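Thread amino acids onto this structure.
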């Protein structure tokens, strides 16, 4: 694990800083098949995720995050990890996997990666609802 960059008293990996400085898949998708928005009431950060789905494949994903650098980096990495993959793959994406892909996060920033996992699940819930399917059996309970 590379812990190189110190910022605001936290030490971040190069990958976190890269995804924060050059976030991938930022924006909105017009006519998205699923839109999810989640927030953390303690820090006030908000993450919005847009999915385009064709059959079983997530063909496009974009995000908008109003939050800390780690929230932006985890959103960016999460979109990269699900783009072009199956719905099942996205449903199984954990915040731990997002953190590992970023070479870790400082302990106080773990909740930012939880937001990324929840945003994807919230967008998939919306997708299922639009299809007339109850999302809870597949996605679980999402506070949105
Ligand atoms: Fe709350 Fe990062 S500090 S999402």
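Threaded sequence (144 positions):
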């Amino acid at each position: 694990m590379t812990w190189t960059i110190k910022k605001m008293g936290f030490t971040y990996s190069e990958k976190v800083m890269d995804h924060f400085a050059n976030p991938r898949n930022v924006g909105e998708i017009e006519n998205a098949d699923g839109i999810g928005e989640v927030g953390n009431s303690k820090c006030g950060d908000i993450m919005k995720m847009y999915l385009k789905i064709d059959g079983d494949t997530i063909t496009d994903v974009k995000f908008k995050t109003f939050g800390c650098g780690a929230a932006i980096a985890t959103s960016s990495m999460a979109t990269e990890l699900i783009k072009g993959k199956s719905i099942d793959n996205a449903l199984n994406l954990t915040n731990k996997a997002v953190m590992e892909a970023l070479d870790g996060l400082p302990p106080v920033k773990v909740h930012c990666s939880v937001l990324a996992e929840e945003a994807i699940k919230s967008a998939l819930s919306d997708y299922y609802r639009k299809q007339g399917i109850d999302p809870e059996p597949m996605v679980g309970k999402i506070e949105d």
